[in-house]
């Protein structure tokens, strides 16, 4: 079995695995209906907790909801809003210094191994097995399995609840496509290159934008996005590189070919620039995270709201392999017991099924299954159907490996992936440089020490 097949197998087994790793549907130790948030929070009234947030729509949605939580519980919630690029370093310094500046931790899918293995965040069984703290309607099985497993679970234990939930989607300007003679978006990446690219790139406008700014955007949103659909992957099952395989190289070379239909400064495009390129009519299509639907559908921020449409990411020779990303909320192990309990109550509440509709209405993307089966919500939010399809059918649990070494690998990919796109190094030479440095980073994995890849 190779590394690529591991991801496919993991996804297909999630519905089997989750019930076997000790995750309860709800706190089973007390009767339904006798628990209330206000009573649970009473011992912690007046406690102040601080959350770590990003500059993205899902966090703004939570901020709008916080006054309701504070009124019901008497717990004060503040937050620190940080750019993603600084978020790992900032939290790591908090953990290693034991300062407990942030009681509510934010855990990227690729950080969970690092955070959990170092004991920086608390296994949530401490809280959901406590009848005084656990809402009987917690229902952890109500999250999409791939989200709870990927963002929240490490080594068989739940450490975080899915909060800011992403899959890559194809956003497109259906009016631009119609004017160019297309009645649907491209179904394959090759079709985007061969047909849509030439027809839509004219008069200072471009067919496509692939966010590719150096950093995690380059490594995860650009580089990895083109490897998987072409049948490639980052690693083989023995933890040696798979980037020099013909499939991985084909994806990276395809990206180089596609650049002629992207804005010339695409290597400086982060998420905001990419979303605004579509919103302002500069490009016809982007592959972006589900969380950005709120921005593109906002008439005060977007000129294309009447032309906006959403679909699943295109297929490659290996099928549809959309990007998977997202964050869970966790409890800082260095916080006091009182603040830990208060942080849990907030996390449990803001990610609950009961508050999912409010979170969505305020611009967040819920990880709960129930809203995506609500006919009224599906009609109101056109991204719901392709998003649920992506998570249920195509989600790749190892789109980025979840082990602690990913940030170091990401830095290497960001450097040489950018140089590839700029033409300062060939795809083959860039891959060779990545592989040389990656072999050093992963030496423990290839030396028989048997660390875990999850």
Produce the secondary structure layout.
Elements: H1 3-20, H2 37-41, E1 48-54, H3 57-73, E2 76-82, H4 84-97, E3 104-108, H5 112-117, H6 125-128, H7 145-152, E4 153-154, E5 157-158, E6 161-173, H8 174-179, H9 189-200, E7 206-209, H10 216-227, H11 246-258, H12 271-279, E8 283-289, H13 293-296, E9 308-312, E10 315-316, E11 319-320, E12 324-331, H14 337-350, H15 356-361, H16 375-380, H17 384-394, H18 406-422, H19 427-441, H20 443-446
Parallel strand pairs: 1-2, 7-8
Antiparallel strand pairs: 3-12, 4-5, 6-8, 6-9, 6-12, 10-11
Mean pLDDT metric: 91
Largest sheet: 6 strands, mixed
Shape: globular
Any idea how many domains?
2
Q: Radius of gyration, Cα only, in angstroms?
A: 22 Å
Count of DSSP-assigned helices:
20
Poorly predicted parts: 1-32
Distance between the termini: 16 Å
| CATH topology descriptor of the largest domain | D-Maltodextrin-Binding Protein, domain 2
In the CATH classification, which architecture of the largest domain applies? 3-Layer(aba) Sandwich
General description of the model:
With 454 residues, the chain is an alpha+beta fold. It folds into 2 domains: 3-165 and 324-394, Periplasmic binding protein-like II (D-Maltodextrin-Binding Protein, domain 2); 167-320, Periplasmic binding protein-like II (D-Maltodextrin-Binding Protein, domain 2), CATH 3.40.190.10. Helices cover 44% and strands 14% of the residues. It is built from 20 helices and 12 strands. The chain has helices spanning 3-20, 37-41, 57-73, 84-97, 112-117, 125-128, 145-152, 174-179, 189-200, 216-227, 246-258, 271-279, 293-296, 337-350, 356-361, 375-380, 384-394, 406-422, 427-441, 443-446; strands at residues 48-54, 76-82, 104-108, 153-154, 157-158, 161-173, 206-209, 283-289, 308-312, 315-316, 319-320, 324-331. Strands 3, 6, 7, 8, 9 and 12 form a 6-stranded mixed beta sheet that branches. A hairpin with a 2-residue loop joins strand 10 (315-316) and strand 11. Helix 10 (216-227) crosses helix 18 (406-422). The longest helix is centred in the first third of the chain and has 18 residues, at 3-20. The radius of gyration is 22 Å and the shape is globular. The two termini are 16 Å apart. The model is unreliable at 1-32 (pLDDT under 50).
